[in-house]
């Protein structure tokens, strides 16, 4: 039987009944506990999570960062592994983490960055060229916590904390469908504008002209979406529109502010 590590996994979720089993199953056999923070699912998310042995805790949605900080507080171990409901730990990453706990080399750092690579519904594994990014997801909460930003959920290490990289990856199934993707971009762009305005940040109006083409170039060439063929063209167009939508909503908010002034 696999030895359970002194490690807590926490996952924030809402209406993820179709996806929540993957992240739980990818870790449940070898970690001490799996905690799902549910913000009011109307589907079977809670039932599915509990059937797989996860502890489910309800917390009304306060934003991404605050919700993850709430999740940190529910864990009984100081070493935490954070997953999103659309992610899963690869077998290679699972073996790497277990090996580091077995020889105690996980203590060589206070936080470990993990490569998170995009994976789409028609794929069985992330493509070798799939867009990815490193984030601290395995960490000692005594040396770092998630930020309290309502939009950006990023672990902020304390000054002097040691950070290193793991070689294994997480698969990221962020897109259920194009319909889902468009809705997600629409919601997220609104939250971005709300946060920018709360900080007094304004976007130059010139970006209404430049945002779409620059973002398309970034997606198609820099993120290598072109390697997906026609699917990559679709992804690039949607990414560019999402970035443009953020700028457009910011400008719309400025117009409404002027209207309200006497």
The helix/strand series, from N terminus to C terminus, equals EHEHEHEEHEEEEEHHH
Number of strands: 10
* Distance from first to last alpha carbon: 71 Å
Query: Sheet with the most strands?
Result: 8 strands, mixed
User: Into which percent range does the helicity of residues fall?
Assistant: 25-40%
Could you characterize what this model shows?
The chain is built from 7 helices and 10 strands. Strands 3-2-1-4-7-6-10-5 form an 8-stranded mixed beta sheet, sandwiched between helices. Helix 2 links the parallel strand 2 and strand 3 (55-58). It starts with a strand and ends with a helix. It has helices at 21-25, 45-51, 64-74, 91-102, 178-198, 207-222, 230-260, and strands at 5-13, 31-38, 55-58, 79-84, 87-89, 111-118, 132-140, 144-146, 155-157, 163-172. The model has no long low-confidence stretch (mean pLDDT 96). The chain is globular and about 65 Å long.
């Amino acid at each position: 039987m696999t030895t359970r590590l002194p490690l807590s996994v926490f996952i924030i979720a809402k209406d993820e009944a179709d996806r929540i089993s993957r992240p739980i199953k990818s870790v449940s056999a070898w970690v001490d506990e799996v905690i799902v923070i549910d913000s009011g699912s109307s589907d079977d998310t809670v039932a599915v999570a509990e059937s797989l042995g996860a502890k489910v805790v309800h917390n009304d949605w306060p934003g991404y960062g605050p919700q993850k900080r709430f999740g940190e507080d529910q864990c009984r171990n100081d070493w935490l592994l954070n997953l999103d409901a659309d992610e899963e730990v690869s077998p290679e990453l699972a073996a790497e983490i277990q090996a580091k706990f077995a020889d105690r080399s996980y203590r060589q750092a206070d936080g470990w960055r993990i490569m998170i690579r995009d994976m789409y519904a028609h794929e069985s594994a992330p493509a070798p060229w799939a867009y990815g990014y490193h984030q601290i997801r395995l960490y000692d909460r005594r040396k770092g916590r998630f930020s309290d930003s309502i939009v950006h959920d990023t672990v902020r290490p304390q000054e002097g904390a040691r950070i290193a990289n793991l070689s294994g990856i997480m698969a990221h199934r962020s897109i259920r469908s194009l319909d889902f993707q468009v809705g997600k971009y629409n919601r997220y762009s609104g939250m971005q504008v709300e946060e920018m305005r709360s900080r007094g940040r304004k976007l130059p109006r010139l970006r209404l002209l430049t945002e779409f083409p620059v973002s398309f170039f970034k997606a198609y060439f820099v993120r290598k979406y072109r390697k997906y063929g026609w699917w990559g063209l679709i992804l690039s167009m949607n990414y560019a529109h999402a970035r443009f939508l953020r700028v457009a909503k910011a400008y719309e908010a400025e117009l409404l502010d002027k209207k309200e002034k006497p």
